[in-house]
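Moderator note: this is an archived Q&A kept for reference. The question asked for a predicted structure of one protein chain; the sequence and the answer are reproduced below.
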Amino acid sequence: MFVDVSIDVTMPWFWASSTDPSSKKPTTKERLEQLQSLPLWSPQILIPTVVLTASLLTLHTFYRRRLRRIPTVSQLPPSYIANHQSLFGTAVSVGDADNFRLFHTPGGRALGWGWLRPVPTGRKDLSKAGTIHVRLAGVDAPEGAHFGNQAQPYAEEAQAWLTNYVLHRRVRVQLLARDRFERVVCSVKIWRWGWRRDVSLEMAKAGWAELYDNAGAEYGGLERQMKNAVETAKLYPAMCRTNCRRQRRGMWAQDMKKYQSPGEYKKLHQ
């Protein structure tokens, strides 16, 4: 003779409906009273609380890291630069030939930037919204006219090249360092003609910049490629037989006996 002594130890959740058809369905007030009577450490309260808290923290972290717009360099969290995070945005103005202003557009077109959320174009609107001052990593371009000093040869041409290459285009910048001029030194990537290109490297290839070799220089992992690009641009006349000076690339077409590097120019006029 066997006796069934099994006990149903299933704990009903306060939101679960009873499986007994003869039982009366509890009202909302009764459910709330049942919930209030439970201790805080009961699974019916503890588990939903933990899940909700973890979900909110995850959403908050995702928003801060991926969706929050950063207006200026001063508002960049130090961890962003320390971890070399990247930002997506639009180049809205070009200063000298090796720096520009970035309007940060987190999420890009997927979050409506450019079609639902317009990118400011006017100077006043940009000043109000805030922009990030970006310095191209690894290269040094001819200096423009500043503080009454004459511009270096080919400064305007180098600036025109950068303007044509990045202005009003979407770019992704990898944050590498912050300099003493309140700019953030970045490795800048852009899609051109179906390829993802590094702006500093392309500028060096075109002959509009030389390698930046000061202490603490950042290259975004492309130092060797940039150095080779600069040397190739300098030595290009050796690959031709006639009219070599005119065929030098970019700023290297000038008389090299009178050449003064951007670094030397800045030291002289500081």
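Archived answer notes: The first helix runs from residue 28 to 37.
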